[in-house]
Amino acid sequence: MSLVGKKAPLFSVPAVIDGEEIVEDFSLEQFIGKKDVIFFFYPKDFTFVCPTEILAFQEKLEEFEKRGVAVIGASCDTEESHLAWLNTPKAEGGIQGVTYPIIADPVKTVAHNFGVLAGDWNYNEEGELTYQGLPVAYRATFLIDKEGTVRHETVNDLPLGRNIDEMLRLIDALRHVEKYGEVCPANWEEGKEAMSATREGVASYLSKN
Fold this sequence. Notes:
This is Thioredoxin peroxidase. The chain has helices spanning about 50-60, 60-65, 80-85, 110-115, 165-180, 200-209, and strands spanning about 10-15, 20-25, 35-40, 70-75, 100-105, 115-125, 130-135, 140-145, 150-155. By secondary structure, the protein is of the alpha+beta class.
């Protein structure tokens, strides 16, 4: 079930911040009323596609911060695993230099509440609780506004890396909608024409494009 239009599930879990400090009660609630949030899940530490995405978010971090947006990463690994990976140089497959928070979700409750686990628990014929599928999160990304409402979500299968620039475009679109009350058509980018959400507005836009 999509979370778009609904309140994002809140959490208070361990996280690594600034690439070096473990905090035990990192909370999504601290951003409510203050900042929009890009909250993204990746499958696992010390893997292959994941560091390319995590580092790509870091490379664009200034652009997110310029827009008043916090970036938070998450996986089902422990905070100790995160810290070890954050202290591993890039040349050795690590993510050293990442400064935004990465939360730890080893019991998988956060991934479960956001609906992005690549598997689930079930009972076998003997009545034993087993896990079917992979106990990791899909490559999911959520744009959560200042009110704590999910405005966008995408969920990629494990081999499919995401486009970080698309996250920035969506934030720009949200800002435009909030500021001008217009809607953003297909392939809209900052600086391009938007349109009013009326029949006349659509007709005018289509006639010029």
